[in-house]
Amino acid sequence: MKKKYTYLEWLSPEEMHEASLLWFSELNFARDEQLFLNNLVNSYTVQLTEKDVFAESKEIVTALLHKEKEIVGLMKRVQAHENQLEIMVDDVDQFKMEKAYIETHRELIHAIDEYMCQYRPVKERLFKLVSKILKKGKQKRLLN
């Protein structure tokens, strides 16, 4: 994965606020998407437990569950970060706290980017597996 370097010292509090709102929106969407993926898994549980796909489906579902747990902590971090934005706009010079806020913002940029980079392949693998199961089911019906 290619490192992204950013110059957060130049970001205004408004820009950091907008970034936080965008992160929260993206994470909320991913969480809603995970609910859909869970429903998909529940709908195809029987097929996902068949011996020819069981190992792969177990691995994917385990990874998905891990990502679901991870997103909760990430959302809490973003919310806490957003709640502390006042440090940047309160007209009180708190250099150490402002610097810590900027560093936290930088860490969140990387954490969210890393999360999304790891989450997308899990989602894609599940869709491919379910597509494979659907095609297999369709072929069985055509043969009968």
Overview of this structure, please?
The chain is built from five helices and no strands. The model has no long low-confidence stretch (mean pLDDT 89). It has 144 residues and is mainly alpha-helical. It is rod-shaped, with a radius of gyration of 21 Å. The longest helix has 49 residues, at 95-143.
**Mean pLDDT, all residues:** 89
Distance separating the two termini: 47 Å
Number of alpha- plus pi-helical segments: 5
The biggest sheet, with number of strands, parallel, antiparallel or mixed sense and barrel status, is: none
Tell me how many strands there are: 0
**Shape estimate:** rod-shaped
**Rg calc:** 21 Å
Structural class computed from helices and strand pairing: mainly alpha
| Order of helix and strand elements from N to C terminus | HHHHH
User: How large is the share of residues in beta strands?
Assistant: under 5%
Kindly state the percentage of residues in helix. over 70%
What's this, in brief?
The chain has about 140 residues and is mostly helical. It is built from 5 helices and no strands.
Q: Which descriptors apply to this entry?
A:
5 helices; rod-shaped; mainly alpha; 144 residues
